[in-house]
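Ops channel
N.P.: pipeline sanity check, posting one input/output pair.
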């Protein structure tokens, strides 16, 4: 897991902060909002740098993203949204 992808709106504080500081920490967990999560959930933190996907890489990375989340196709292609790539350290 050397890279993580997500989509965000360019009209957010999150996106503005990404432009200022390229360093990020992302918490990923396995919670499913069930009672068993209290004892069984697992979490990891990924540290890395982030950038908006370049025009050259966007088609390839969009294919990877949509293979996992096909229901987010319209969200991904919304002109005001950006496909972000985290390079995990």
């Amino acid at each position: 897991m050397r890279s993580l992808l997500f989509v965000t709106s360019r009209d957010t504080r999150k996106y503005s902060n990404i432009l200022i500081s390229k360093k990020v920490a992302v918490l990923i967990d396995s919670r499913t909002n069930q009672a068993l999560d209290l004892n069984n959930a697992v979490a990891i933190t990924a540290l890395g740098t982030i950038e908006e996907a370049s025009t050259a890489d966007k088609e390839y990375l969009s294919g990877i993203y949509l293979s996992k989340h096909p229901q987010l196709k319209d969200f991904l292609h919304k002109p005001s949204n950006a496909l972000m790539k985290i390079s995990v350290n």
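N.P.: looks fine end to end. The mean pLDDT is 94.
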